[in-house]
Automatic annotation (TrEMBL), chain A:
Source species, domain of life: Bacteria
Keyword Secreted in record: no
Family matches, as Pfam families: BPD_transp_1 (PF00528)
Protein name as annotated: Sugar ABC transporter permease
Gene Ontology process terms (BP): transmembrane transport
Transmembrane segments: 17-36, 82-106, 118-138, 178-199, 211-231, 271-292
Automatic annotation (TrEMBL), chain B:
Organism: Vagococcus entomophilus
Cellular compartments annotated: Cell membrane
Transmembrane segments: 12-35, 75-96, 108-127, 139-160, 181-206, 263-280
Annotated keywords: Cell membrane, Membrane, Transmembrane, Transmembrane helix, Transport
Segments forming domain ABC transmembrane type-1: 71-280
Domain of life: Bacteria
Pfam families per UniProt: BPD_transp_1
GO biological process: transmembrane transport
Recorded family membership: Belongs to the binding-protein-dependent transport system permease family.
Its membrane topology: Multi-pass membrane protein
Protein name: ABC transporter permease
GO terms under cellular component: plasma membrane
Length: 305, 295
C-alpha cells in the first residue's frame, strides 16, 4: 500500500516537471514579447534616448502626461476614437442580429449556404485589400458617386470630407464584419426552445411578434454578454482600417488613438510621448476589462477566465 | 394569411440576397477591373464585366520581381508561424488543461498568460524590444512576436478538457507516458479545434501588413500585404508633402496610380485565402461558437 502510494506520488511529481517543461517555451516567448515591452513602458516616465536605453535615460516623472493634456489634437483624437468605436459597436450588434434573424427564415438550403459563404468572406480579408475595394466604390469618381449622378445628385467626397469620413469607416467596418458576427447570434437562435414558438403560434402571434417576444428575449443573454465583453474595445477604433483609408485631409475626423500614437511616436520618433499615450490607453483598457468581467461574473454568473 | 406569409418570406429572401450581393459585387468589381484595359478603368467604365478584356495586368505581375519576392516572404512567414504557433499552442494547452491537483503550479503560468491578454506594452515598447533583439529587417520579426496566440491556447485548452478522462486513465494503465497520451489521444481527438486555430494563424499572418511596415526598413523585405499597401500609400505620402490640396487635386493624384495593375495584384494576393476558404468554413463556425460562449 505504502509502496503503491509512493509510486503514484513519484509519477505525479515527475509529471509536474514535465508539465512545467512543456509550458516553459511558450512562457519564454511571452516574457520576451509581452512582458519586456511592459517593462519598456517605464520610458513613458523618462526622456527616452534610444542609445542609452531604459536603464540610462533620465526620469522626468509625469512630465509627458502633463504635456499630453496640453496637446491640441489629443481631445479631438480621443473624441474621434470614442465616436467611431462606439458607433461600430452599436451597428456591429444590431445588423448581425437582424441578419441572423432573417437568415434563420431562409428555408432553401442552397440560398442560405451560398449567402453565408459570401458574407463571411470579407472578415477574412485584409484591410489592405478591402481598402481598395472601398476606394473603388466611394472615390469621387467611384461607383457610388456615379449612381448618385445618375439620379441627378451631386457627388459626395466620402474619403475627403470630415463629415462623411467617420461614417464611411463605421459603415464599411459593419459591412466587413456583419456576416461573421452573425454566426454567434445564429447559434443563439437555434438554441431557443421550439416549444416557445409553437405556443406563440397557438396564441395566434404573427411572425413579427414571435421575433419580438420569443427570438429576441431568447438571444438577450448572448447579446448582453457580447456587448459587455466588447466594452473594453472602446478605445480601439481599428488601426488597420483607418490607416489604409485616411489621409491628411481627414485627420480631423478620422485620426484615432492608435494611428496618432504611430505617427507621433514612431514616425515622429517621440518614443516617450507615444508610449505615454499608449500607456494611458492600456490602463483604461485594463480597468474596463476588469470592470466588465466583474459585471459579467456578478450579474450573469459567468466566469470568463 | 397564406398570402401574407408568402409576401413576408419574399421580402426576407430579397433582403438577405441583397446583403449577400453587397459583399460579392464590390469584390467582383476588383476582379473585373484587373481584367480590363487601363483606359477603360481610368474612365470608370468597368462594372461587373471586364471592358476590353486583357490579361496584360497579370502578365505584368509575372515579371514583377518584387511582387514574387514579397509573395515568397509571406508564404514562408505563414508556414513558419503556423508551425511555431501549433507547437506552442499544444505544449501550453495540454498541461494547462490539467487540474490544479495534477499540475500544482498551473495557476502561476495561467496568470502569466492571462495578464498578457489584459495588458500590453503597446506599439512603441514592442517595436523597441524587437529592435533591441536585432530583428529589424529579419523575417523573424514577423514571426516571433506572435509566437503564442493566447486566445488559441485557451480555445484548445478548453477543447482538451472535453476529452474523456477515462481515455487518459486507460492509456496510463497501459503505461503510456504523458507525451504518448498527448500525441495518440488528445491531438487526434482535438483536430477540429486545431484546424480552427490553424486557420486563425494562417489568415492572421497572411493578412498582416503592419508588422512589415514596422520592422522592415527595406522594401525588398516587405511581406506581400505590406508591399501592396506601399503601392497605395505612396499617394498619401505625396499628399503629406504638399500642403493645401483641394479635393480635386487629391482626386487627380489617386487617379494616377495604376488601377488595374493594383487590382490584379490584389486578386493574386487574395487567391491563396480563397483556395483554403472552403476548408476554413468547415471549421471556423464550430470554432468560434465553442470559443466565444463558454458555459
Amino acid at each position: 500500500m505504502e509502496i503503491q502510494h509512493k509510486k503514484i506520488k513519484k509519477r505525479v511529481t515527475r509529471n509536474e516537471l514535465l508539465f512545467i517543461a512543456m509550458v516553459i517555451p511558450g512562457i519564454v516567448f511571452l516574457l520576451i514579447f509581452s512582458y519586456a515591452p511592459m517593462y519598456g513602458l517605464l520610458m513613458a516616465f523618462q526622456d527616452y534616448i534610444p542609445a542609452k536605453g531604459v536603464f540610462g535615460s533620465k526620469f522626468v516623472g509625469l512630465e509627458h502626461f502633463q504635456y499630453i493634456l496640453k496637446l491640441p489634437d489629443i481631445a479631438q483624437v480621443t473624441k474621434n476614437t470614442l465616436y467611431i468605436a462606439i458607433m461600430k459597436m452599436i451597428f456591429n450588434t444590431v445588423l448581425p442580429i437582424t441578419f441572423a434573424i432573417l437568415l434563420n427564415e431562409i428555408r432553401v438550403l442552397w440560398v442560405k449556404k451560398s449567402v453565408q459563404t459570401i458574407v463571411y468572406l470579407p472578415h477574412f480579408l485584409s484591410w489592405v485589400v478591402l481598402a481598395s475595394v472601398v476606394v473603388n466604390l466611394f472615390n469621387l469618381d467611384g461607383t457610388i458617386n456615379q449612381i448618385l449622378n445618375q439620379f441627378g445628385l451631386s457627388s459626395l467626397n466620402f474619403l475627403g470630407s470630415n463629415q462623411l469620413f467617420p461614417n464611411l469607416l463605421i459603415g464599411t467596418d459593419v459591412w466587413k464584419e456583419f456576416g461573421y458576427s452573425s454566426i454567434v447570434y445564429l447559434a443563439a437562435i437555434t438554441s431557443i426552445d421550439p416549444g416557445l414558438y409553437e405556443a406563440a403560434t397557438m396564441d395566434g402571434a404573427t411572425w413579427i411578434r414571435k421575433v419580438w417576444h420569443v427570438t429576441l428575449p431568447g438571444m438577450l443573454p448572448f447579446i448582453l454578454l457580447l456587448t459587455i465583453l466588447n466594452v473594453p474595445n472602446i478605445l480601439n477604433a481599428g488601426f488597420d482600417q483607418v490607416y489604409n483609408l485616411y489621409s491628411p485631409i481627414v485627420y480631423k475626423s478620422g485620426d484615432v488613438l492608435d494611428t496618432y500614437i504611430y505617427r507621433i511616436g514612431l514616425i515622429g520618433r517621440q518614443y516617450s510621448l507615444g508610449t505615454a499615450v499608449g500607456l494611458v490607453k492600456s490602463v483604461i483598457g485594463l480597468v474596463l476589462i476588469f470592470g466588465s468581467n466583474k459585471f459579467v461574473e456578478k450579474k450573469m454568473n459567468r466566469v470568463m477566465f | 394569411m397564406q398570402d401574407k406569409s408568402i409576401f413576408r418570406s419574399t421580402i426576407i429572401y430579397i433582403i438577405v440576397i441583397l446583403l449577400g450581393l453587397s459583399c460579392l459585387i464590390p469584390m467582383w468589381n476588383v476582379v473585373a477591373i484587373s481584367l480590363s484595359g487601363s483606359d477603360a478603368v481610368m474612365a470608370n467604365k468597368v462594372g461587373l464585366f471586364p471592358v476590353k478584356f486583357t490579361l496584360g495586368a497579370y502578365e505584368k505581375i509575372i515579371s514583377d520581381h518584387q511582387f514574387w519576392r514579397s509573395f515568397g516572404i509571406s508564404v514562408f512567414r505563414v508556414v513558419a508561424t503556423l508551425a511555431i504557433n501549433l507547437f506552442l499552442i499544444v505544449t501550453m494547452a495540454y498541461p494547462l488543461s490539467k487540474s490544479e491537483k495534477a499540475f500544482t503550479t498551473r495557476k502561476i503560468f495561467m496568470n502569466i498568460m492571462i495578464f498578457a491578454i489584459l495588458f500590453s506594452g503597446g506599439m512603441i515598447p514592442t517595436y523597441l524590444v524587437v529592435k533591441r533583439l536585432g530583428l529589424i529587417n529579419s523575417i523573424w520579426s514577423l514571426i516571433l512576436p506572435g509566437a503564442v496566440p493566447i486566445g488559441s491556447v485557451i480555445l484548445v485548452m478548453n477543447f482538451f478538457r472535453g476529452v474523456p478522462k477515462s481515455l487518459e486513465e486507460a492509456a496510463a494503465m497501459d503505461g503510456a507516458t504523458p507525451w504518448q497520451t498527448l500525441l495518440k489521444i488528445y491531438i487526434p481527438m482535438s483536430l477540429p479545434s486545431l484546424a480552427t486555430v490553424s486557420l486563425f494563424s494562417i489568415v492572421g499572418s497572411w493578412n498582416d501588413f503592419f508588422g512589415g511596415l514596422l520592422y522592415m526598413t527595406r522594401t525588398e523585405n516587405y511581406p506581400l500585404m505590406t508591399y501592396i499597401q506601399s503601392l497605395t500609400i505612396n499617394i498619401s505620402e505625396t499628399l503629406q508633402n504638399s500642403t493645401g490640396l483641394t479635393a480635386e487635386q487629391f482626386q487627380a493624384l489617386t487617379a494616377v496610380s495604376n488601377k488595374n495593375l493594383n487590382a490584379a495584384k490584389i486578386v493574386v494576393a487574395v487567391l491563396p485565402l480563397l483556395l483554403i476558404y472552403p476548408f476554413m468554413q468547415k471549421y471556423f463556425v464550430k470554432g468560434i461558437v465553442v470559443g466565444s460562449v463558454k458555459e
